[in-house]
Design a protein that fits this description.
Helix content: 10-25%
Bound molecules: flavin-adenine dinucleotide
Strand order of the largest sheet: 6-3-2-10-20
Distance between the termini: 63 Å
Radius of gyration: 24 Å
Structural class: alpha/beta
Number of helices: 8
Amino acid sequence: MIKTDILIIGAGPTGLFTVFEAGLLKLKCHLIDALPQPGGQCSELYPKKPIYDIPGFPEILAGDLTGNLLEQGKQFQPGFTLGERAETIDKQEDGSFIVTTNKGTQHHAPIVAIAGGLGSFEPRKPKLENIEKYEDKGVNYFIKDPELYRDKKVIIAGGGDSALDWAIFLADVASSVTLVHRRNEFRGALDSVEKVQELKLVNKINLITPAEVTALHGTDHIEGITITKDGEESILETDYFIPLFGLSPKLGPIGDWGLEIEKNAIKVNTVDYQTNIDGIFAIGDVNTYEGKLKLILCGFHEATLMCQSAYKILNPGKKFVLKYTTVSGIDGFDGTRKESPKAVVKAIV
Ligand SMILES: Cc1cc2nc3c(=O)[nH]c(=O)nc-3n(C[C@H](O)[C@H](O)[C@H](O)COP(=O)(O)OP(=O)(O)OC[C@H]3O[C@@H](n4cnc5c(N)ncnc54)[C@H](O)[C@@H]3O)c2cc1C
């Protein structure tokens, strides 16, 4: 049984920052994530994309943000259960919780912070015979490392931002990029649509619309696809087929935990982001309240306020005094201490 003060479900940016804020209050955290690596959407969906709205970082790659958050929390020695999905929760008589994963790992904590984002990642898959056979053998629903496609033939299907952005990005990486969409109109940002148009004119993107991918071919790995356009079929050779039709958000098992759910998100109050069950908080993309914005910086704010409440629950009657890290420094659980150099006071004569 793994024991901790705050059990965080979801190691996305919100969950990772919770470790730091909890650490400042001397609370220990353990994180569970269904994915094999921390970082949530940032590392699973767009690690190589720059983010422009993280305070203090004019531009930072999503993968680097994850690295920085891990580094920032390291001194507070969080535990991780990765590659396992939190499946069930049982409230104990003393008000604490036992959370068990799909692999049977049990975690015991007085506070649970659900930072489950979109829930389990479920890509919308095209209805194509045998598509499962080619998954990770040329058919990928996410682009984790664009280098995989260097000098390869790539076919992307889809008409949203993801399909447009990646077609543009890979135009300089892959040996050929084909973008297939069933309509002539795209749902993405106007400048992306214009960029694709430009790249088409210089033969860096082969745009096929309105058309659909109707069959996949290959023995052990994908080798080609059938494209149907105006009722006519043609086969195009390829090394990779990347359907980018978005994600269908699925809360997964958390949806059955007796929490108040609205539009696939967990309802919380706006004081400390606690759910309808005392001791269970929901922070980041997974929660909903009036005016909710699904942004990383909002998750950071929610994590900070949530930790204050967790502290009060765990230390009843104890007065909390907010201290600036510039003044108090940071005492890591690993024995490290960070502090700004003390001012030198000189005698004034
Ligand atoms: C392409 C793209 C670009 C974006 N650009 C920006 C941007 O520029 N600026 C910005 O602020 N935001 C951006 N976002 C949104 C941002 O990524 C999210 O707001 C952020 O990731 C939310 O963080 P989170 O930690 O709340 O959830 P997530 O990042 O979704 O992490 C949740 C984690 O919980 C895990 N999980 C869920 N259920 C379980 C379970 N039962 N058991 C175990 N683990 C579970 C998941 O596996 C996941 O790793 C973008 C999103 C996308 C897709």
